[in-house]
Amino acid sequence: MLIYGVIMIDQDELFDEEKESFLIFNLENSSYAFHSADVNKVHPQVPVTFIPGCPDYVLGIIHIRGDIESVINLRTIFGLKNSKTKKTSRILIVEKDSFKTGILVDSIEDIADIPVSQISPVMSTLPDRIKAVAKGEFDFKDHHTIIIDATALAQQISKVRS
Question: Which domains does the chain have, with CATH numbers?
Answer without folding.
Answer: 25-161 (2.40.50.180)
